[in-house]
């Protein structure tokens, strides 16, 4: 009953965004807080309760309300980071903001008039397009990206915290050393943290919001296709203090994943695998960021996100990938990719008893990217005795896709 009332109140708030004859004041906290406070609305319900036609209606009829909603949701996430997101209520508020922004952002990107909305300075009052902008303030997009990256290494929310005696010893999220909280052992990190399904799910939701931010390129006209994606530029630049631990976490999470596990038949039907969705979105983030290879000699010099020295910021993800050189790290990556690519070929006497993955296309693109950017890895694969283990699944997928034009 309570859950039904929550959905009804959330739905009424969405309707009010378009039904009001005047823009809703950004200082009306009682109204804006009902979008993300004191309720737990699953992401499926958010997509059902916020239909596409109503988002477009708010955007076209009451644009100030949509702008304020984006400002307020981002501001709430930034505030949670400032408070180190320690309480359960604050963590739920963050998830509600993440789900709402994941739903709304594509409809902001599809309208060319909103192209620079997220890259404008924050209003001095924290919301509403009519307020004056603060000189030199951080663009909304950077505030959102920084908050997401901080939250991806938030103790007791997305990573297992190291308990310290006394409340005054608790670490501040703004100054935390995220290299100590890398998600999985592997390249550059030897310690394997304990698994937690809830944390896997939260990481997945935050990464899906990141992927939604990066999708801006899909909504550009053909004439603007050569412009750099400013979201990816900031995320992969030195301005993101979590760039190295994020790259390492994404890479290690993918390469350490074993869908079969100890090999108990039908275990995937008995237990929910929270790691598979996380691995898929990690793969997608890696591919999108590694594909964003814009050098200073490229056509994007005259546009978009350019630093003071008139050069596009280096893509640190490509830089980190190209600098991996230890044989142990190469073996870990090759073994992980081979294990996942071979998954459809795993046979057993019991039909459908083994879990099947469906991300082989992403894996093949990712493997290509590694070979392309790290020639030492390519030579390692070619001289390795395991080269046939990777060649067989590649040939299998080639043969399996030959009759399908979309592949």
UniProtKB/TrEMBL annotation:
GO terms for cellular component: Golgi medial cisterna; Golgi trans cisterna; membrane. This is Protein HID1. It comes from Anopheles melas. Pfam families: Hid1. The lineage of its organism: Eukaryota, Metazoa, Ecdysozoa, Arthropoda, Hexapoda. Transmembrane segments: none annotated.
């Amino acid at each position: 009953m309570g859950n039904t009332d929550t959905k009804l109140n959330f739905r009424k708030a969405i309707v009010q965004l378009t039904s009001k004859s005047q823009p809703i004041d950004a200082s009306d906290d009682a109204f804006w807080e009902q979008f993300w406070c004191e309720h737990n609305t699953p992401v499926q319900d958010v997509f059902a309760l916020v239909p596409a036609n109503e988002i477009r209606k708010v955007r076209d009829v009451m644009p100030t309300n949509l702008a304020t909603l984006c400002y307020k949701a981002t501001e709430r996430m930034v505030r949670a980071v400032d408070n180190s997101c320690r309480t359960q209520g604050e963590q739920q508020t963050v998830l509600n903001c993440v789900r709402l922004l994941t739903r709304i952002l594509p409809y902001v990107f599809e309208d060319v008039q909103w192209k620079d909305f997220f890259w404008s300075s924050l209003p001095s009052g924290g919301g509403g397009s009519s307020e004056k902008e603060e000189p030199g303030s951080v663009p909304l997009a950077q505030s959102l990206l920084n908050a997401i990256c901080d939250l991806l290494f938030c103790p007791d929310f997305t990573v297992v915290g190291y308990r310290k005696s006394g409340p005054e010893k608790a670490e501040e999220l703004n100054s935390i050393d995220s290299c100590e909280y890398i998600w999985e052992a592997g390249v550059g990190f030897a310690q394997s943290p304990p698994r937690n399904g809830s944390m896997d799910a939260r990481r997945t939701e935050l990464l899906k919001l990141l992927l939604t931010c990066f999708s801006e390129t899909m909504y550009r006209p053909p004439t603007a296709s050569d412009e750099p994606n400013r979201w990816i530029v900031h995320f992969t630049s030195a301005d993101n203090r979590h760039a190295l631990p994020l790259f390492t976490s994404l890479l290690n999470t993918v390469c350490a994943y074993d869908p079969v596990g100890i090999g108990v038949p039908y275990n995937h039907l008995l237990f929910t695998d929270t790691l598979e969705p996380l691995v898929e979105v990690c793969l997608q983030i890696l591919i999108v960021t590694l594909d964003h290879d814009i050098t200073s000699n490229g056509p994007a010099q005259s546009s978009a996100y350019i630093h003071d020295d008139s050069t596009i910021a280096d893509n640190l993800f490509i830089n980190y990938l190209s600098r991996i050189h230890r044989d142990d790290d190469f073996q870990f990556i090759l073994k992980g990719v081979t294990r996942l690519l071979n998954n459809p070929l795993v046979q057993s006497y019991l039909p459908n008893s083994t879990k099947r993955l469906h991300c082989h296309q992403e894996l093949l693109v990712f493997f290509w990217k590694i070979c392309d950017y790290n020639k030492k890895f390519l030579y390692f694969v070619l001289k390795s005795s395991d080269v046939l283990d990777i060649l067989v699944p590649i040939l299998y997928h080639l043969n399996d896709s030959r009759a399908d034009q979309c592949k």
